[in-house]
Design goal:
With 221 residues, this protein is of the alpha+beta class. It has one domain: Aminohydrolase, N-terminal nucleophile (Ntn) domain (Glutamine Phosphoribosylpyrophosphate, subunit 1, domain 1, 4-Layer Sandwich), CATH 3.60.20. The protein is 34% helix and 26% strand. It is built from five helices and ten strands; from the N terminus they run αββββααββββααββ. The strands form two sheets. It has a five-stranded antiparallel beta sheet. A five-stranded antiparallel beta sheet has the order 3-4-5-6-7. A hairpin with a 3-residue loop joins strand 1 and strand 2. The chain is globular and about 45 Å long. It starts with 19 loop residues before the first helix and ends in a 5-residue tail after the last strand.
Amino acid sequence: MSEPSNTGRFPFYGPQGRLVLVDSALEAVSRGSTTIGIKTPKFAILSSQIKPTHPLIEPSEKIFSIDYHVGATGSGYIGDILQLIDTLRLEAQKHKLTYETPIDTDSLAKHLSTYLHNYTTYAVRPQAASVIIAGSDETGIQLYQVDPSGTFFRGSGFAIGQAADIALDVVTKEYSADLTQQQAVDLAKKAIEKALGEKPVVETGIVLASDKTFHKLPLER
């Protein structure tokens, strides 16, 4: 990627050594749509709240296909989320053209991590979005979370966005590696509903180990 323009020699640190601009980006993420990722050995799902809009305005897409075997979702500023989705798609296409094989999920997460980290080394606004990536490759089903600082995690359950701590607590308490697809979808919806205190409209995508294919599920209102 091209480096962000350098408008300052050093990043802005707070009194406790934290990056002020990254903290601001994380605050923006915490105000975004409540978004869940759940992984089992057989599949992974991504679920995100569709926020209510004006009756004449179509809501923004929340679940995105990166390649046939990988999907992603995010929380934060929608413009930043879309830019990060495009970054992931471009990297997947470059890998396929260069190596004639689909990119693995770990490489995608690391690429996005590096892309986001570059913004923290300059006094520019970091991308105000966290992203959850789910994929199926030769290593099996994988689930990653990547934050505005470039920090990334691999795991079996993540929650980002509004009241993410409440949603993650629900997922943690009820998670099992033996969940069926429907149970995982229901758990994600339950976690989002618990976080928001109301019944949400949720968009969901799933990737299966059996056919290594990511697709969206029909929207349920």
